[in-house]
Structures are given as structure tokens and as C-alpha cells.
């Protein structure tokens, strides 16, 4: 996918279908066996349909030169989440693949080989525990991103703002100034495509607490004032409610939004840092200045400092059903460490000894602290269970689309009533899961 949609959000039905369509679990798996020669054929499933016949085969040539006798074939999948979930149920899903978001953490061992312990993998790689269960790592990120706002700084400067706002109130005031002093749409939700709304769930680091993922499922009411869901979803509600977003969210278009931000017809979007080069490319193609596109932290400070989560993109994994696991693992490790893919995509390299891309260095210059939030340990898997039981798709788009609808007057309710409903549904599910 040219947009590199990362966390598409899994629907409850998809997770339940996967859970009921397969048997077994991580606990049943013995130790991985990667012995044998690095030779022979492997098939790699990829969501990067745009690279499957161009850049990816070029990487493969380099791997095949390093390991003579190997051959890497790519299988591009357009509807990656849905189609690969079906393939997992069938048992035929290649040798190396990206772990779909439909796979709950306690299911990882059903489908993928463990690559090592969290401590072993963490010594050489970032994001080691993002696809881990019971101390075992099942996937290596292909690169990482930071979370924040992609903005057209030229438009914001026209409105009188040249530095990132420090509070939600300052951000809303800035959007209001953009609305009053420029012709730009202050904020673009990408409501129709849906998946960009998931980035409102990637802001937990703003509170500056490294244990945010551990404590989140232990909280029965995360939409209370001062808590992360109230801060983030509350800002989204206020943006829309104050008419600071696109006039008709039902007609938004992701591909069309890139040149809109690139040329200054849109001032800001909440996305990952991966979007910056795409917006700059769109600006350049439209004859605008790509340097107008910059990355700003979420407008919230803890102890006088911005914080932003960095997290891994899709995780590459070795199929438990692969007949050539030695070559599959060698390809995965080489691709993550030596191919140059992350640098080519201006992503955070997964290998800990490699430098950050320029866009992230510029981001750090705003004074933001980049935080990698460890996955929950004591509460591992609990959040997924609460999400399914409450039917609140935190990493998806359904409940936030309703939030937008309420905010724009297209659905009944207000911010307080909807947050009360969300807290009620969440707390009822949380009490069952955590008891």
C-alpha cells in the first residue's frame, strides 16, 4: 500500500473468526528449529503492492548474492489484513509474512516461529516486545515511526503560529487562526478512509509514562478528564465540533488529501512520521515547496516537555508452516538489518545501532522526547480482550467515526454523553477481563 497504513485496527468479527477458525495456541509450541543450510526458495507475503515488482526484487537480488542458491519470491496482497487472515486459517501463508493485526498476542505461536526471547532480541532491535507473548518474540519490525501531526508550516505561519502548540487549547486556537486568516482547511480527518483515525490511539506517550500500555487495561474509565482517551478523543471532538475540519467528512479521500496538505489547501493531519515524505513528494509534484511539510508533536506537555511514541511498523515473521525456516529467518534478519529498506522509507531503523532519519532528527529539534512504550507484561493480552468484549475498536475507526458524527451534529448526543457511554461499555468489559 502506498500509504503504508500501519495499524488498520481489527474488527471484532475478524478476531473472533480467526479465533474460532483455528485451534491450538502459543503454549503448545515447542522451540523453533532454524537449523539447516540457507538455500532454496522462499515466498514472502507483502502489503507493499507498489514495491512488489520494483524495489523488493532489487533487495532480493542482494540477498541472493549473499546467499547463493536462494530465491526470494514476493506475493503482493492488496487487502492484506482480510486476505492474509483467511490464509492463516487455511495454513498456506508463505514462508515470511507481516503479522496481521487480526492475530491476538496469545495466538502468535499458532502461526509463527519464535525468533528468540524478548531480552535476546532487544539487545539488537527496537520494538522487540510489540509482537511478543510469554517472553518470546514472534516478529521483527520492518522499521519504525513516530506519532504526531503532519503540518504545512507555511500555512500555520500565515496564521501567526511558528512553533508547535503546547496544549490542546493552544492547538484549537491555532486551528481557529488558520481558519480565519487563510483559505486552508485547518484539519483533515480522512474520515471516509477510516484508518487514519486510528492514529488518535497512538498518543499514549504524551503523559510521559513508560508503563502506559501496562496500566491502560487496568483503568476502568479511560475517558475521564485528565486521562489519555479524554485528552485525545476530546481534541478530535472539539476540532470537528468547532467546524475546524473538512466541511463534509463523508467525501474525504486519502490519496487526494496528500497534495491538499502539500500545497497548503489543508493545514494539518494526525498521522505517523512515515507520511512526511509522502506529503513532501505530493508538494513537489504539485509545484509547491516540499520543505513546507514538517512534523509536530501532539499538543500536550508533561513536566514541561512534549513526548511522542515511537513504534514499529508491521512485523515480519517466519511462518510456522514454512518448509525452509533457515532461509526464511535469514531473509527476515537481513531485510531488517542490512537491506536499507528502513532508510529508503525514511523510517526509524529497527537495528538499535543505526541512525534516525532526517525527518525524526528535525522532530527531535522541537524538544520532543521520543518514547518506546513496552508492551504490557502482567496484563499481556488483556487490552485485546477488553476491546473485543466492549466492542470499542481502539485501534480502528468505527467508534471514532461515530465521535465525529456526534461532533458535527449528524448523530445524537454530545461529548459528555458519548464518553460516559464509552466508559460504561469499557468498564463492564474490563471488570470481567481483569477479575
Give descriptors for this structure.
435 residues, alpha+beta, three-stranded antiparallel sheet, 17 helices, globular, disordered N terminus
Q: Can you walk me through this structure?
A:
The protein is of the alpha+beta class and 435 residues long. The chain has 17 helices and 14 strands. The strands form 4 sheets. Strands 8, 9, 10, 11, 12 and 14 form a 6-stranded mixed beta sheet that branches. Helix 2 links the parallel strand 1 and strand 2. Helix 9 packs across helix 16 and helix 10 crosses helix 11. The longest helix has 20 residues. The N terminus is likely disordered.
**Compute the gyration radius: what is it?**
22 Å
Unreliable stretches, pLDDT < 50, 5 or more residues? 1-27
Number-wise, the strands total: 14
Q: How many helical stretches?
A: 17
Sum up the overall morphology in one term: globular
Largest sheet: 6 strands, mixed
Structural class: alpha+beta
For the residues shown, what is the average pLDDT? 91
The percentage helix is 25-40%
Q: Quote the beta fraction.
A: 5-15%
Give the N-terminus to C-terminus distance in angstroms: 41 Å
